[in-house]
Amino acid sequence: MRDLAWRLIAEGANASTRYPPEGWLEYPPMTRTLTTTPAADGFRMPAEYEPHAGCWMLWPERRDNWRRAAAPAQRAFVQVAAAIARFEPVTIGVSAAYFESARRALPEAVRVVELSHDDSWMRDVGPSFVVHPRGRVRGVHWRFNAWGGLKGGLYAPWDQDELVALKVLEIEGRDRYRAPLINEGGAVHVDGAGTALVTEECLLNANRNPTLGRAQIEAHLRAYLGVSTIIWLGKGVFNDETDGHIDELACFVRPGVVCLAWTDNRRDPQYAISADAWERLHDARDARGRRFQVHKLPIPGPLAMTAREARGVELRADSAPRRAGQRLAGSYVNFYLANGGIVMPLLDPRRDRSAAALLKRLFPRRRLVGVRTREILLGGGNIHCITQQVPAAPPAA
Ligand code: KQY
Predict the structure, then answer these.
(1) CATH 3.75.10.10 segments of the chain
(2) Residue of 144, 326, 383, 385 with the most ligand 1 atoms within 8 Å of its CB, for mutation
(3) Single pTM value for the model
(4) Which of 66, 125, 154 best tests ligand 1's pocket when mutated (most atoms within 8 Å of CB)?
(5) Spatial CA neighbour of 210 closest among 159, 259, 150
(6) What's CA 76's distance to the chain center, in Å?
(7) CATH architecture label of 31-391
(8) Nearest-5° Cα angle at 207, 210 to 375
(9) Which of 223, 224, 176, 179 minimizes the C-alpha distance to 33?
(10) pLDDT per residue as tens digits for the range 42-94
């Protein structure tokens, strides 16, 4: 590109110069949409605990999801962005209407770019990045239907969310695989060594890919994540409005080691869900044939939305309503692993300390930063759901 610009200047380009000039097509496109699959091209999705080039987020704006015109959520997002920016570069996408106020609110270390979106769940609408051992990075752009489309989805329309992964890949300058599957980044966790963790409640839900059975969904996950083994847990965290995303229920600490949201209270509906997940993990083997070591991470609360909180959310016919007393899908598993750091949600003064202590033990070489994120939980997710890591390109072998 630079060579071309210099040639045009040297040739005395002016307003009447033909543009694009002769020879333009000799220059490669900035990013391409590929018709192959990551697995076929030798790519795999790295685990979150592998090195990052940075992290992407989106700015919360919807008044029918975030109470009090999203102001308290915006403050929580600033805290999360600032915490992650201590460890790696953060970019946040903001609509034109909020660009100036978001820029003012965010630390200068955070890059702010104008990017339209319907809501702010970058984990789910952003690309899932994949890497190649020869140092290349590409992105998977899943199809998105707002967690269920017209059958239980959370809002409509979602056309701007559907474009977010494409826009992020354009800005990152990374080639794109357009996956034929409706899926969200929060619905899959990988260990980076051939294993994926998913839930039946989400991936087999009739509101995502009703024409595909388990075997076909597995085939797509193998092709687009570059994994060989898929571990199916049953349901996700109780009352999770995403239809049971794995990233609220369980995640990998490293290959062979899993952290699981847990309660010992048998009367809590979460008990049966977590106990079932524990048994499935106990019986499972990962891609290398290993058994899992499972660490139980007690859930906060149980937490529920207060009447005041529910009143602060604007009602709209085409989005899911908020109700006082509604159980919140609070989970400490929804943390973010940054380079050398772990950013965890603080949700319950009675449980935060013990959750932090367990996470410190599981990740002894990372600095732990806690952020109060009840305002994010009120919108339906937490730190992991609002972030998306860009992996560092592996050193070319
Ligand atoms: O990944 C997530 N937890 C997204 C939740 C979307 C909630 C929309 N109200």
Answers:
(1) 31-391
(2) 385
(3) 0.93
(4) 154
(5) 150
(6) 17
(7) 5-stranded Propeller (3.75)
(8) 155
(9) 176
(10) 999 999 999 999 999 999 999 999 999 999 999 999 999 999 999 999 999 99
